[in-house]
Amino acid sequence: MIYNTQGMDDTVDEANGDGAAGSRTPVAALFCTDLMFGVQLQNMARKAGFRPVTLRPGAPLPDADILIVDLAARGDWETAVREAASRHVPVVAFGPHMDADARRRARDAGASRVLANSNLTRDLPVILKSVVGIWVSTDYRMERDMPDIDGVVIKELVTHPDERGYFREMIRVTDPFFGEGFGQLSHSLMHPEVAKAWHIHKTQIDWWYVPMGVLKVALYDMRPDSPTKGVLQELFMGGEHGQKILKIPAGVAHGCKAIGGASHLIYVTSNVYDPQEEGRIPHDDPEIGYDWTAGPSIK
Question: Distance (Å, rounded) from C-alpha 233 to C-alpha 148?
């Protein structure tokens, strides 16, 4: 099937595999009917390493690695957002700052991030770079819920169950996100409602896995030269949130809280234990501003 691009950018031919599924170039689907905004989005996507594909209103959503939506565009952008979200494709929506209703509808439809037009040129390149960082064509599936922090990688694990139990592969030495290598394997048990925060390392990298229980994880980028310095990211691991490996770069403060009963954390570090690497930040640090005592939001 050919996706018509209105003469603004590339076409995608699923029959010859020239899309995200058959190429190493990730695809950015653009839902935008404004010519000037469309050209701007194409340029930003190409600069970040994406192949931009502009959707004609009413056209089906191609196999894409991210969907970018102009909330002021003509056509049913909400259906496109819902379809992308159902495929676990990250969605970035942008629109006028004063149009609170459109922003709310975008979030309700499943948009991962909603930006004001004034913040588009600042924030979108960072988001695109994050998605490229986790878009890897390998023999395992990568979770495509885009991380907010540059260098954070989430590998979604595949479980193979049968009547005997299940088999689940976690990390291979050939995995691109494991290039820094093995230093030490450790196991931490956390009783219900226990929180540990904040930890930070100078050079050490962590890879986390939660085989039992559920952890609420928070990350805060404190690297002075990072494009996402000051960004706070929250995610959940284990239980109903799925099995995954989380890579935490050096210089990113991290903490976790057991919210699903007793929870186990298995983690690999790139170095052996070194007290000089073990930085600590108060759990209520005002710069980070994260409340570890807060319960679930009421909706």
Answer: 6
Sign, CA torsion 187/192/194/195? positive
Closest CA to 217 of 164, 277, 152: 152
- Residue-wise pLDDT for 89-144, tens only, equals 888 998 887 788 888 898 888 887 888 787 777 778 877 776 655 443 333 333 33
Per the CB < 8 A criterion, the answer to whether 15 and 56 are in contact is no
pTM of the model: 0.55
Alpha carbon distance 200, 293 (integer Å): 20
The span from the CA of 293 to the CA of 197, in Å, is 12
Whole-angstrom Cα distance, residue 236 to residue 241?
A: 6
Is 25 exposed, middle or buried, given 0-12, 13-18 or 19+ CB atoms closer than 10 A?
middle
